[in-house]
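Figure caption, in words: inputs first, then the predicted bound structure.
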Amino acid sequence: MHLSIQSLSVISAAVKGLRMCFLLRIPSKAYYFISFIVLLIFLRTFYRYSQDIIRNSASTMCFDDMELTMEKQTNVVEAKHRSNKVSWSIENLSIPNGRTDVNCVTNWNVPLVWEGTFDPIVIDAIYKKTNPRVGVMIFAVGKYTGFLKGFLETGEKHFLTDFRVTYYIFTDNEKEVPAIALGKGRKITVLPVPSAKRWQEVVFGRMKWATITIDKQIRNEADYLFLMDVDSLFHNRIGAESFSRLSAVLHRGYYKNTERANFPYERHPESRAYIPVGEGDYYYTAAVLGGYLEDIYNLVRYCYEQSEEDSKNKIEAVWQEESHLNKYLLYNKPTKVLSPEYLWSDYDAVPADIKVVRISQLKKNYAEVRPNGGH
Ligand code: UD2
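Bound structure (UD2 present):
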């Protein structure tokens, strides 16, 4: 009990007065009067004391509330300053709601990444600590140089924006590589490759030139490496959730309504890309791939060597390098599978399970952009 000094002195004075009356045998009327006054003083003191308690507890509550509001505001400010300004701590870890409408894990128990299954701020902050060097290999041969501007400009807005990124542009026409304003820590390296008479040469050639160039140069310059089609635009954030030893993207055309037996794998046993009916988990696109440099190296070298073997036997797999890629991924399982959010297409309507389109393949006039036309 914390009675004020003033209250205590008033009470003790009243008690003293009462005792005096009692000792001096003052007439009973005066005695009752003084008792009444003492009672009043006591009640008043009690009242003031209880008011103090209420005020004190109220002010403690206000302070707590204020702290909570400040904490919330800090979180809001931090959310606004996401990406490289992020300083997350154990207090502001959020728990993603997860998804129940789609499968978020593969049969071999690696993540299948969808919007809603990770916290973009936290995951970027975790990987940012190691400040990885990211390489992106893109081929722009012949008319495909026309896609570079859109790819690079939107990549600068959405692709691993606070990370160190080098775009390796393989092209037969260096002059057509546009000058794009790049963010801090980001650059373009142009690598010459021969022109092609057939588009098939280019798509197979990606595996060959990627293998050669990793050996010659990129191995010393990147930790993570991506391989992407150039005829696409980034529409939404792609961040560190895409990182793993080997990350592959589900092809939008076959991720939910296609029986495994109907996947467009190479079904001719003569091809090195052959996958028998009854095997295979998913059908992956060759248009977006990523992983540790050495894992991507093993993959591109495998696809290059296998397609060379096919070529010696005058075989071209049904979906070119994508067929060999699917064969490789059947026996070398991806350590992360990315949903078709990571490559959708302007040709197709966006279904309800695709909450975010991160990259979308552009519609193109095949006859116009490919050296030998064709679909
Ligand atoms: C599909 C695949 C693609 C590849 C191809 C093989 C998707 C979204 N894409 O795309 O990854 O497996 O089939 O058939 O599933 N390129 C040039 N110059 C050319 C031709 C191609 O630079 O003359 C490059 C360019 O980076 C392009 C990529 O190769 O983005 C793939 O070629 P495509 O886009 O013509 O192949 P497409 O649309 O059939």
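The mean pLDDT is 86.
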